[in-house]
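Notes from the 1:1 (GR / supervisor)

We went over the backlog. Supervisor wanted to see one worked example end to end before approving the batch request, so GR pasted a single chain during the call. The sequence is below; no edits were made to it. Supervisor asked that the structure be written out right there so they could see what the output format looks like.
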Amino acid sequence: MDELSNKDYVVIDDFLDKNLFDDISSFFETTLPLFSKAGIGALDNNTIRHDIRGDYTYWLDRKRDVSLLEFWTLVDEAIFMFNRYCYLSLSGYEFHLANYPPEAKYKKHLDQFNSRTNRMITVVIYLNNNWKPGDGGELELFLKDGTSKIVEPIGSRCILFKSADLPHQVLKSNIDRHSLTGWLLYAPSALGQFFG
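Structure output shown during the call:
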């Protein structure tokens, strides 16, 4: 919590235990045929822009995706901890699985919509087994001091960062890059893929 508060981001390795990592990875593979091309913007303003992002996503739904119960419990615990220790008043979340096929990337952006700005904390959990340098798909964070931080998408690594404060991009992937990505929300809106 302190590191996130001071640096605007924190990287946590081995975030998931092996069983949960395997369960989420298996769910990812099972649902991969249901993924759809990701766009930019919320709901009616959602537009497919291949020049900006090349990933495919599957939005998670707590009521439908009951096999991820342990993950949903982890989300509840995270919201409780942020509210208790950081006084953030988080009251919802939205998550999706993301697949970046070879050559896919996501250009520099902030995790906010023009129509709503209630994403407070971005959560990315990598699901890549045996990722190695050269595989690509790294996350580049653009820090307030003018420098940048490269985060390698190593399996079970989690990165948390302040959604409205850190522009970032996903560098070109050379292999399929898998992640579970989402946002912890303040004052959820009816817009977007909100669940709470």
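Supervisor's comment: Residues 69-86 form the longest helix (18 residues).
Batch request approved.
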